[in-house]
Design a protein that fits this description.
Structural class: mainly beta
CATH class: Mainly Beta
CATH architecture: Sandwich
Strand order of the largest sheet: 1-2-3
Largest sheet: 3 strands, antiparallel
Strand content: over 45%
Shape: rod-shaped
Helix content: under 10%
CATH topology: Immunoglobulin-like
Distance between the termini: 61 Å
Radius of gyration: 22 Å
Number of domains: 1
Number of helices: 0
Number of strands: 5
């Protein structure tokens, strides 16, 4: 899998990872010719236990490992409001 073959999307409570791979191998020896093409695609959606800030989400891909950083949304704090 390469970085270009991945697509990651984040919503408030789920992450979807889509990927496509294609590999082509050719071999020629005299009158012998062999060509193999393998390709595949996948989609995975993972529900998150907490709401996340989709605008602050980050992803990195290094040595075949995809790392997602999804910060939680800060809970709303209770505050007093003065009545005019």
């Amino acid at each position: 899998m390469t970085k270009d073959g991945l697509d990651v999307s984040v919503s408030e409570n789920a992450v979807t990872i889509k990927g496509k791979s294609r590999h082509e191998e050719k071999e020629e020896k005299g009158d012998y010719y062999r060509c193999e093409i393998s390709q595949g695609a996948f989609t995975r959606t993972v529900s998150l236990p907490e709401s996340v800030d989709a605008d602050a989400a980050r992803a990195s891909f290094k040595d075949g490992i995809l790392e997602l950083t999804l910060p939680k949304v800060a809970p709303a704090r209770r505050r007093a409001i003065q009545i005019d």
